[in-house]
Design goal:
The chain is mainly α and 235 residues long. It has helices at 2-16, 20-53, 59-69, 74-85, 100-125, 128-136, 141-151, 153-168, 172-178, 188-197, 201-234.
Length: 235
């Protein structure tokens, strides 16, 4: 118990002093997780919309793949990306292993099925009469699609929260493809693992506090927007 209390005291001191090492780590985390969420949205949202609205042969198989992907173990994703980027791998010539780019690739693979799965679930829950109403008002296919996406935007925000939460807190793939290199690929989760192994509990606690704060801040902002949208539509 004493080591825990002492660790918290020293962690608070590091945060108050704005320790350079401690505060550069979350910045690198955001530089990796931010683009990862954006790319996963650009890929996963169209997939989710199409899968939620369209009917075609093989759809059930694709749905099963998406739902399986939503539970991908990060270590498995990390291993897959590492094999692709290894020197003797098919993409080894790009020399991306142990770089932020490799970490982004892994995190996009983790987050995209989450986004696609939540979006397609939102599309399936829409009232079928909405499509008929939009078409009866003369909407073309693009206008109809935009109307449906707007109706499902509250769930879309939930998809963003889930994707960000899934990748900002994962450690397996980041360790494997990033290597936890100081000043280059060391992010919040990998730093916690390293500092704990080294017995630097004060630094591990300080980084953990920042990780929890960032997760809370992102979720609070998106929840606020989500609830505001819900109130707006009620009125």
């Amino acid at each position: 118990m004493d080591i825990f209390i002492e660790g918290i005291k020293q962690a608070i001191q590091l945060l108050v002093e704005l320790n350079r090492e401690i505060f550069l780590i979350p910045w690198r985390s955001l530089l990796v997780s931010g683009p990862s969420v954006l790319i996963s949205l650009l890929i996963g949202m169209p997939i989710g919309v199409i899968m939620g609205l369209a009917k075609f042969p093989g759809r059930k198989l694709l749905l099963s793949l998406i739902y399986t992907g939503m539970g991908f173990p990060p270590t498995v994703v990390g291993l897959f990306v590492a094999l692709l980027l290894w020197r003797s791998g098919p993409l080894g010539y790009l020399s991306l292993l142990y770089s932020p780019t490799a970490m982004i690739i892994a995190q996009v693979i983790i987050a995209t099925p989450i986004v696609a799965g939540l979006i397609l679930a939102a599309m399936q829950q829409l009232d079928p009469k909405l499509q008929l109403q939009a078409l009866s008002l003369g909407a073309n296919k693009l206008q109809l699609l935009w109307t449906l996406i707007k109706e499902a935007r509250i769930t879309s925000l939930a998809a963003i929260m889930a994707a960000f939460g899934g990748i900002i807190s994962e450690v397996g793939s980041a360790m494997i493809v990033g290597g936890n290199i100081k000043g280059k690929t060391r992010i919040l989760t990998t730093a916690i693992v390293l500092f704990t192994r080294m017995g630097k509990f004060e630094k591990a606690i300080a980084v953990s506090i920042i990780l929890l704060f960032l997760s809370f801040l992102a979720n609070f902002a998106l929840t606020y927007i989500q609830q505001r949208e819900r109130i707006y539509w009620k009125h």
